[in-house]
Amino acid sequence: MTKDYSPEGWGWRREHHASYETMAGLWPAARGMLPARVVGRDRGAYRVVAPDFSGRPGFEAAAVSAAAGRAGAPGEYSGVALSGAYARAIEEADSGDRGRASGVLEYPACGDWVLVDLDGGYPRIQATLGRLSAVARGRAGRTSEAQVIAANIDTLIVVLALDGGRNFLPRLAERALVLARASGAAPVLALNKRDLADEETRLAAEAELSRLAPGVPVLSTSARTGAGIAELAALFGPGETIALLGKSGMGKSALVNALAGAGSGEAAPGAGPSGAGDVETAPPPEPGLRAIEGAVRDGDRRGRHTTTASRLYRLDSGLLVVDAPGFRELKVLGDEEATADVFAEVSELAVSCRFSDCTHTNEPGCAVRAALDSGELEPGRFSDYLELEAERASYERRHSARLSASDERRWKLIAKARRRLKDAERG
Q: Which of 191, 244, 277, 335 could bond 220 through an S-S bridge, CB–CB 3.0 to 4.6 Å?
């Protein structure tokens, strides 16, 4: 099969071209480099695909450099490192908000567009173009550092599972939706492994997610049987980039393989048990490849971390898919608008509170407390909102110079309210 190296085929947009032009205006040497998309990272080095920009206005110098061997010709490159100057610039930059901004002084992530040249015969990344979106989460543990999972994503598919274990958690869906809204990507909710649930369970799960996320597409799929895969694939078109996010064991890699089968007219690649035959090493991003699938434990349906780093695949259909590693813990970064969007019923009630800085704890004229007392607002839903708001505030506190005394008092009151709600739920 002929490989497609058209820029649009790899997700190039006019916004990326504008970023390239801005950078070239400030740094003329960028004209001699070709843009390439990061498709993976192996042992500290990057894997990139450089599309064919020949004949495109603004890339004449890059075409001359490519012909002279000074810039990467169209194709796939592995073992690509950062140039020394760029790596030093990243280290010296203020990285207090790393992973959330769309600035250029950040380590490239899967899906980023970068500028590559040969730098003495070896491909080197010299710069990163501005991001249109960035799917970022807090790193596991007590650190507040952000981790960018994927960049320049059009749609983020949040994958849950109907396998009877703890893989269908509405609270996890809420967290993932906040992350998706904050990223700039459009969310889709996928309930995988529908073949392991009866129809009543499946319909109840779909209804619950639709209630939590009005307007967000909710689909049930089975990577094993192929059910729902065509409907999922129909949401996207060639040149679009999607990413899959979920816990280990949700079947994300199997969904990638199933989508690949849907695009080529083949049977779903996930149809059948995964085993040693599914394992591959350092797969290049070309059509026909399979993402590595892992097994789950029978006792609690928890999965293994089979996917260890984000990888971008280009399917036969032209769809670009990022298979991201599963997570044990999903820490949401600070984004007030995203939280308000996911918990729209709370934010809409808050507009009617007497005080604009109402903490919804004990102030008079609080519309949120009134809705809780009347039963209009579910206590569990409000508790989840407070938890995510407290997590957001904690992240922002760690990234601000100081927290005012009034803010400190506000979040102490909210913390007390959370404890009271949790005690009431247990009681």
A: 191
Nearest to 70, CA basis, from 33, 30, 29, 27:
33
Work out the angle at residue 245's Cα, subtended by the Cα atoms of residues 280 and 328, and round it to the nearest 5 degrees.
90
pLDDT of residue 96: 46
Does domain 140-323 bear CATH number 1.10.10.10?
Answer: no
Claim: this prediction has a pTM higher than 0.85: no
User: Topology of domain 8-128, per CATH?
Assistant: OB fold (Dihydrolipoamide Acetyltransferase, E2P) (2.40.50)
- State how far the Cα of 384 lies from the Cα of 216, in Å rounded to an integer: 19
pLDDT at residue 362, as a whole number: 82
- Given phi > 0 = left and psi -120 to 50 = alpha, else beta, which region is 251? left
CATH class, domain 343-426, is mainly alpha
Q: At what angle are helices 379-398 and 170-183 packed, to 10 degrees? A: 40
Helix (H) or strand (E) holding 172, with range, is helix 170-183
Q: DSSP assignment of 349-393, as one string?
A: HHTTSSSTT--SSS-TT-HHHHHHHHTSS-HHHHHHHHHHHHHHH
Q: Which of 51, 67, 71, 66 is nearest to 116 (CA)?
A: 71
User: Could you give the C-alpha distances from 186 to 116, 125, 134, 182, 287, in angstroms and in order?
Assistant: 29, 29, 12, 10, 25
Instruction: Locate CATH 2.40.50 in the chain.
Output: 8-128
Residues 346-401: pLDDT tens digits?
Answer: 989 999 999 988 888 888 999 999 999 999 999 988 988 888 888 877 777 666 54
| 3-state class (DSSP) for residue 284 | coil
Other beta carbons within 10 Å of 251: 30
> Which residue has 């969007």 as its token pair?
341
Please report which residue ranges of 32-98 form alpha helices under DSSP H.
60-67, 84-92
In a 10 Å sphere around its CB, with 0-12 CB exposed, 13-18 middle and 19+ buried, how is residue 373 labelled? Answer: exposed
Angle at 356 between CA 354 and CA 360, to 5 degrees: 70
